[in-house]
């Protein structure tokens, strides 16, 4: 029977990918991550899961092989749901159970029982479709083949290999595929470059720039896929003078080593190949799979240090711009020209958001929500608004537009084109529509984020200096602490409070109380085997010292009790 055929296909395929000895795989902040050479079984099984997800939803899903900001030897999996967002959290426990099933037989049993639970008929008529992509890691090709075999182990499933792409490109393709529109990489580049051009054309003429806008922009590609894609995209862009450094094509540096958004943002240092010659220039940095973006400037005083423009400040720039466009539109309403365009606008941040950014956003009159770390949480919250902004301080974020709002906005734009073409309110409507096309609706995207930043700076007539001065960051410090078992830390309240181990929170409170504007929290990373410590205070020395003393407490509570790790 079909069922028996399915069973033996799955079992025979699973036998080709034995579970590595002594490993436990956990579904972290953004999917599975581990040493790339240990992931064949996990990726094979994730392929099976992706096929089940596609069958369950009757739509195309995506599977991306990447470990993003992690070192080159690591690899991992991100699964994209039909809307292009991260796989539903409801399925994470099953993903984990499947990844850890001890042998092929029990894996197959789990697949069948899970399929039954979810009402998925195996060996049936329905066929699954999965888009596969990978970043530039050396283990990527072999893992992609394993994923493919996992997908093909479910009868009737088709895997389409998109090749080496950025994570946001793959998510974008999945989303578009399910909307029934064109999904090639070229379509992606066309959509970005066209909406960018549209925004640039809508910049006020005769802007007072004081010659402060420099069209030069230098981008650090983290020695990864993002730099290569930007090289391709930039050929379609007018009005920007982009120089890409650390693109993987140049073949010099190692992925994420001394380069990339995580390195720049966490360490507040310039990436490799940037130095005194770049002082004063606008610089940006992507992470390894180009879903994070930060800006920076080499400091005049010390060319090793930088002035960082993090995700919070990108968010603030976007929020300011968008609010202005909405105000222009709503002003035209008060003159009774059109129907009122009501919109619920909200901002989503995490505990890592600099306190000064949150103050700024609230002063703009925006509602600010806080979620735990991880795009999967922020994205979900942001989708509750008509216009939902979300950004993590590390540079991962985007702006989401609700379907309802876009329909209203399009209608309004059409009305204005008829009654008041070329008016300020008409332009504002066109700008908002262009932003909704430029900025990735599936997930944070360094390429589209970069183009939006550039278009907004141009619109405002702002230099990097003007942007930096939007507000002053509170001094902060991030540290990592290696511990015996990071899962021993359990947090609550969007990760701002520690529940376990008992007594740690009290110690953090005690330290924090010593500093003016002190704020500090700790949490286990979901992508690295460490505890992260974040501290903020009114001076850099204070933030550093708070982070250091709390790190000592973390080590005291959770560090290696015996010196076995030294032997
Ligand atoms: C992933 C997630 C991000 C998260 C980051 C760090 O980023 O997509 O939302 O901020 O991990 O997570 P953690 O602090 O748990 O290690 P990426 O760029 O590595 O995919």
From TrEMBL:
Domain Alpha-D-phosphohexomutase C-terminal residues, every copy: 480-550
* UniProt key word Hydrolase: no
The record ties this protein, via SUPFAM superfamilies, to: Phosphoglucomutase, C-terminal domain (SSF55957), Phosphoglucomutase, first 3 domains (SSF53738)
**Residues in the active site?**
68
Q: What is its EC number?
A: 5.4.2.3
What keywords tag this UniProt record?
A: Isomerase, Magnesium, Metal-binding, Phosphoprotein
Establish whether keyword Methyltransferase is in the entry: no
Supply one GO BP term.
Answer: carbohydrate metabolic process
The protein's name is: Phosphoacetylglucosamine mutase
MF-aspect GO terms: magnesium ion binding; phosphoacetylglucosamine mutase activity
The family classification in the record reads: Belongs to the phosphohexose mutase family.
Top EC class, one word: isomerase
Q: Where does Mg(2+) bind?
A: 68, 287, 289, 291
Co-factor note (free text): Binds 1 Mg(2+) ion per subunit.
């Amino acid at each position: 029977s079909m069922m028996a055929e399915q069973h033996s296909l799955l079992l025979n395929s699973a036998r080709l990918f034995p579970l590595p000895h002594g490993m436990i795989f956990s579904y972290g902040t953004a999917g599975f991550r581990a040493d790339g050479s240990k992931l064949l079984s996990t990726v094979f099984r994730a392929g099976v899961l992706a096929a089940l997800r596609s069958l369950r939803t009757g739509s195309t899903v995506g599977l991306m092989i990447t470990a993003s900001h992690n070192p080159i030897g690591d690899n991992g999996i991100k699964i994209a749901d039909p809307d292009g967002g991260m796989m539903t959290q409801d399925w994470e426990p099953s993903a984990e159970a499947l990844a850890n099933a001890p042998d092929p037989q029990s894996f197959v049993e789990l697949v069948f029982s899970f399929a039954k639970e979810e009402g998925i008929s195996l060996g049936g008529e329905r066929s699954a479709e999965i888009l596969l992509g990978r970043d530039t890691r050396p283990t990527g090709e072999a893992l992609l083949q394993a994923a493919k075999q996992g997908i093909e182990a479910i009868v009737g499933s088709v895997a389409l290999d998109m090749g080496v792409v950025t994570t946001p490109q793959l998510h974008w393709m999945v989303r578009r595929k399910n909307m029934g529109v064109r999904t090639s990489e070229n379509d992606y580049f066309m959509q970005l470059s066209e909406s960018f051009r549209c925004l640039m054309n809508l910049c006020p003429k005769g802007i007072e720039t004081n010659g402060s806008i420099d069209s030069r922009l230098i981008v650090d590609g983290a020695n990864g896929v993002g730099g290569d894609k930007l090289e391709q995209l930039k050929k379609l862009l007018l009005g920007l003078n982009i120089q890409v450094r650390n693109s993987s094509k140049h073949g010099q540096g190692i992925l994420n080593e001394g380069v990339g958004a995580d390195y720049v943002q966490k360490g507040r240092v310039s990436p490799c190949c940037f130095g005194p010659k770049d002082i004063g220039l606008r610089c940006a940095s992507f992470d390894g799979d180009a879903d994070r973006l930060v800006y920076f400037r080499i400091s005049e005083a010390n060319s090793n240090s930088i002035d960082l423009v993090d995700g919070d400040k990108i968010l603030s720039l976007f929020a300011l711009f968008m609010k202005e466009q909405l105000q222009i539109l709503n002003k035209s309403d008060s003159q009774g020209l059109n129907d009122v365009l009501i919109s619920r606008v909200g901002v989503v941040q995490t505990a890592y958001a600099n306190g000064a950014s949150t103050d700024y956003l609230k002063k703009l009159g925006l509602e600010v929500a806080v979620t735990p770390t991880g795009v999967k949480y922020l994205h979900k919250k942001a989708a509750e608004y008509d216009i939902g902004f979300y950004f993590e301080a590390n540079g991962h974020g985007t702006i989401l537009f609700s379907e309802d709002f876009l329909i209203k906005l399009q209608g309004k734009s059409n009305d204005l084109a008829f009654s008041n073409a070329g008016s300020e309110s008409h332009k504002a409507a066109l700008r908002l529509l262009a932003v909704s096309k430029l900025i990735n609706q599936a997930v944070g995207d360094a390429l589209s984020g970069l183009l939006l930043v550039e278009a907004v700076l141009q619109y405002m007539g702002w230099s990097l200096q003007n942007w930096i001065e939007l507000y002053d960051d509170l001094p902060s410090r991030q540290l990592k602490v290696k511990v015996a078992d990071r899962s021993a830390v359990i947090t609550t309240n969007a990760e701002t409070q520690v529940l376990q181990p008992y007594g740690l929170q009290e110690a953090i409170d005690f330290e924090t109380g010593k500093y003016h504007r002190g704020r500090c929290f700790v949490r286990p990373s979901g992508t690295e085997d460490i505890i992260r410590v974040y501290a903020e205070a009114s001076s850099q020395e204070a933030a550093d010292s708070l982070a250091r003393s709390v790190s000592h407490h973390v080590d005291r509570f959770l560090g290696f009790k015996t010196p076995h790790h030294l032997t």
